[in-house]
């Protein structure tokens, strides 16, 4: 069973996970948006940088983070 997190909680988890990835240690912020378009999770993840992170490293970190966290967490539906 997946844990249900608030937007802020899921963003905090995702940012910490992404900062563990090589080249993404200085990532500034992430944004989680509610989305019911995917069958395996109800959220989408976006990352924000100041341009100092290699795009390939960022893409890889996004993909790895989503693949890991989508099995653990659902986003609390907006009211």
Overview in brief:
The chain is an alpha+beta fold and 79 residues long. It has helices at residues 7-19, 55-69, and strands at residues 3-5, 29-34, 43-48, 73-75. The protein contains two helices and four strands; from the N terminus they run E-H-E-E-H-E.
Any overview of this molecule?
The chain is α+β, with helices and mostly antiparallel strands. The protein has two helices and four strands. It has a single domain, classed as GMP Synthetase, Chain A, domain 3, CATH 3.30.300. Strands 1-4 form a two-stranded parallel ribbon. A two-stranded antiparallel ribbon has the order 2-3. Strand 2 and strand 3 form a beta hairpin. Helix 1 packs across helix 2.
Report strand order across the widest sheet.
Answer: 1-4
Unreliable stretches: none
CATH topology name, in short, is GMP Synthetase, Chain A, domain 3
What's the total count of β strands? 4
Helix content: 25-40%
Main sheet overview: 2 strands, parallel
Overall number of structural domains: 1
CATH architecture descriptor: 2-Layer Sandwich
Computed over alpha carbons, the radius of gyration is: 12 Å
Strand content: 15-25%
């Amino acid at each position: 069973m997946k844990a249900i997190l608030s937007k802020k909680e899921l963003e905090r988890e995702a940012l910490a996970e992404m900062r563990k990835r090589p080249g993404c240690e200085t990532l500034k912020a992430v944004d989680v948006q509610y989305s019911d378009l995917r069958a395996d999770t109800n959220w989408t993840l976006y990352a924000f940088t100041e341009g100092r992170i290699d795009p390939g490293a960022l893409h890889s970190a996004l993909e790895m983070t989503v693949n890991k966290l989508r099995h653990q967490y659902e986003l609390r539906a907006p009211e």
